[in-house]
Amino acid sequence: MATMATNSDLAHLFEEFTAILEILGANKFKVLAFQKVARTLDSLADDAAELARTPGALEAIDGIGASSAAKIREFVERGNIAELDELRAKVPPGLLGLLGISGLGPKTIKLFWEQGGVTDKASLKTKLATGELLQLAGMGEKKLKGIEESIALSEQSAGRIRLGAALPLAERVVAMMLAVKGVRRVAYAGSLRRGKETIGDVDILCASDDPAAAHAAFRDQPGVAKVLVSGDTKTSIVTNDGVQIDLRTLPDASFGAALMYFTGSKEHNVKLRERAIAQGYRLNEYGLFPDDGDAAPQHRGVQPIVAGTEEDVFAKLGLAWVPPELREDRGEILVAEKKAIPTLIELSDLKAELHAHTRASDGSMTIEGLVDAAKGKGFHTIAVTDHSKSSVQANGLSPERLRAHVGAIHAIAAKRSDIIVLAGSEVDILADGRLDYDDELLALLDLVVASPHNSLKQEGDVATKRLIKAIEHPAVRILGHPTGRIINGRTGLEPDLRRVFAAAKANNVALELNANPLRLDLRDTHIKAALDAGCLISINCDTHERSNLDLARYGILTARRGWLTAEQCINCWDAKRLLAWLKRK
DNA sequence: GCCGTTTTCGGCCCGACTGTTTTCAGTCG
Q1: How is A418-455 classified by DSSP, letter by letter?
Q2: Which of A55, A82, A141, A397 could form a disulfide with A401 if both were Cys (CB 3.0 to 4.6 A apart)?
Q3: Residue A356, in any domain of the structure
Q4: What's the CA–C1' distance between A517 and B15, in Å?
Q5: Residue at minimal CA–C1' distance from B14?
Q6: Between the CA of A450 and the C1' of B29, what is the distance in angstroms?
Q7: Which nucleotide across the nucleic acid strands is nearest to A138, CA versus C1'?
Q8: A250, A272, A293 — which closes off a domain?
Q9: pLDDT by residue (tens digit) across A216-250?
């Protein structure tokens, strides 16, 4: 059998397909189709290599047709894809990376390659410096200068930044813009409003009586490294930290349509606009218009049918309002058509933190400090879950220290009538699936959160068995950050989650959604798959210091992207129900 | 390449900005 192909391996192959096809100038819809296959594979909770064994299973996935399914099977069985190998031979590999340079697209790359002799970034830089590319059709001083600057910028770009960095940044910009003269409304949109775990650039919408002043204030704000473009309705800047922020100004009357348009996702928008066309409308960022066959109705004095609020536009299209976190073209439009969008979990639904650390291991708070912090959030329950002995780097507790710690926690619990304090532990799941404490010790605890912390590069099937063994242990109630991934850091475990979820369901173990923006583990699509498998979710901040309890917002955004309701999250249950559940397995 | 409550063939969203164009192509989101 060939090497194990993970979903991300397969996704990368299809990304490579699209890059080569773009540069070769292939049919753009074919490129789009491959891009969708790559995206679909990347967010698939099932193991694609596993599905490849069942006839028709891959083809049943939306966006994957017979051709792509055959390519996946070919790779799983033989370790290569003949068509991709042929394509690779046609294009210098160094060209593919050039697609990441902003302002440089496939047409220009092809021109540089075929007529300018460019084969990679190094040769591009050289030829830009000598000025020889100026001879090529359509190339002027400004354009080449812009490409040179983009290369420099790309080398210091932050790339996709984490939600935990992007959201506070956007909130600062929104507050700044609200203070500008003439500004009526400001909101962040884009993937940030959808709550994605990483953000490519920050989109800010602004309704203003004086758009020019808004753009000027935006360009002149502190921390701007470069103004990329600036027109009547759009300005793009790059911050000193390498983050791109776009400002769009628009009429106040079309704020709702613009918010929808710039919130995306692109795929969701395409579906909505196709729906609009089918109903005799035309949808753009200025509103929903009657379709009179001509483009840009807003410039011809045509009045939109609806434009002011998102709710109005969705309603006119026969749809329930779709929460931004669901706008990913993952079936939400069909559900909105049936008016069956679930009431998603909200921050105010959280009533307990079940994964928290104190000074006993690697936290910064005392037990009392942690309990007070949880009480301050209005919680009815806080679980103290310090690290177990194998987490030496986190000052994990020896059996002796754990016994003493449990005693100290119970003593404090006995004194508090305002909040329930549980003595628990975040117990390491060792590489082979055994737990880090013996059963006698585990029996002393009110709650066991079992988490993987090391051997995070082990093979997928080994990881699957490891996690399932932990889930089947009678003491375990929550599986903590199940994959151990760090966003923009490490991949973590890649188990067969379908089997892990089935085991969690069978053993009545809740799966954690770790709200720390470095983790967000399980991720959005995994939450959805876990819910489809009938599992319960536990959202926790993995609290190490007081301010960590504020990280819950990121967990909530991710949970909503996974279609989670409060009913399916044990942290939202009342104390009686939660305690009864913790005791029963 | 993918897909189907008009379709298994023929479509596949829409507009802004820039630079090079004498009316538009390329890129981006």
Answers
A1: SSEEEEEEEEEB-TTS-BSS-HHHHTT-SEEEEE--S-
A2: A397
A3: yes
A4: 34
A5: A284
A6: 42
A7: B20
A8: A250
A9: 999 999 888 888 889 889 999 988 888 999 999 99
